[in-house]
């Protein structure tokens, strides 16, 4: 049951897929330390979840290959599905990191910029560049 709970947590964290949440023993008053331990244990399943996302995207790309659409349109759709499926989690983190590292002069400023909910111009440029690179690598 612990393995299913950790796998479920990894899937729910890394994707927008809603899977059943497996309760832990004594779930009524779970302290923060136990929650952190559950999340730490779920990290072992992150590569598996990434592989499942990749397999899904490859299968979708194969389907697009047989449809009467341009391969470029198919590749754009793959990127859109990937962003949708992951909820843009990594893209948001990437943009925040670029904003922080390029906009801050010391550790406190960097962390303050990274925690800000708005994305700056440098983050947007980096994000567009990253998505263009991903598109070119798909083609």
From TrEMBL:
<dbReference type="GO" id="GO:0051073">
    <property type="term" value="F:adenosylcobinamide-GDP ribazoletransferase activity"/>
</dbReference>
<comment type="pathway">
    <text>Cofactor biosynthesis; adenosylcobalamin biosynthesis; adenosylcobalamin from cob(II)yrinate a,c-diamide: step 7/7.</text>
</comment>
<keyword id="KW-0472">Membrane</keyword>
<feature type="transmembrane region" description="Helical">
    <location>
        <begin position="120"/>
        <end position="138"/>
    </location>
</feature>
<dbReference type="GO" id="GO:0008818">
    <property type="term" value="F:cobalamin 5'-phosphate synthase activity"/>
</dbReference>
<feature type="transmembrane region" description="Helical">
    <location>
        <begin position="44"/>
        <end position="60"/>
    </location>
</feature>
<protein>
    <recommendedName>
        <fullName>Adenosylcobinamide-GDP ribazoletransferase</fullName>
        <ecNumber>2.7.8.26</ecNumber>
    </recommendedName>
</protein>
<dbReference type="GO" id="GO:0009236">
    <property type="term" value="P:cobalamin biosynthetic process"/>
</dbReference>
<dbReference type="GO" id="GO:0005886">
    <property type="term" value="C:plasma membrane"/>
</dbReference>
<comment type="similarity">
    <text>Belongs to the CobS family.</text>
</comment>
<keyword id="KW-0460">Magnesium</keyword>
<comment type="function">
    <text>Joins adenosylcobinamide-GDP and alpha-ribazole to generate adenosylcobalamin (Ado-cobalamin). Also synthesizes adenosylcobalamin 5'-phosphate from adenosylcobinamide-GDP and alpha-ribazole 5'-phosphate.</text>
</comment>
<dbReference type="Pfam" id="PF02654">
    <property type="entry name" value="CobS"/>
</dbReference>
<keyword id="KW-0808">Transferase</keyword>
<feature type="transmembrane region" description="Helical">
    <location>
        <begin position="7"/>
        <end position="24"/>
    </location>
</feature>
<keyword id="KW-0812">Transmembrane</keyword>
<keyword id="KW-0169">Cobalamin biosynthesis</keyword>
<feature type="transmembrane region" description="Helical">
    <location>
        <begin position="65"/>
        <end position="85"/>
    </location>
</feature>
<keyword id="KW-1003">Cell membrane</keyword>
<dbReference type="InterPro" id="IPR003805">
    <property type="entry name" value="CobS"/>
</dbReference>
<keyword id="KW-1133">Transmembrane helix</keyword>
């Amino acid at each position: 049951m612990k393995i299913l709970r950790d796998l479920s947590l990894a899937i729910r964290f890394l994707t927008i897929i809603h899977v059943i949440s497996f309760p832990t023993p004594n779930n009524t008053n779970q302290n923060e330390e136990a929650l952190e331990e559950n999340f730490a244990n779920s990290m072992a399943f992150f590569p598996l979840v990434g592989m499942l996302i990749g397999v899904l995207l490859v299968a979708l790309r194969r389907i697009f290959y047989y449809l009467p659409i341009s391969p470029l349109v198919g590749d754009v759709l793959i990127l859109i599905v990937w962003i949708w499926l992951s909820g843009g989690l990594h893209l948001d983190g990437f943009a925040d990191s670029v904003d922080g590292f390029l906009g801050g002069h010391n550790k406190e400023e960097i962390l303050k910029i990274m925690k800000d909910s708005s994305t700056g111009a440098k983050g947007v440029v980096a994000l567009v560049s990253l998505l263009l690179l991903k598109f070119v690598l798909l083609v």
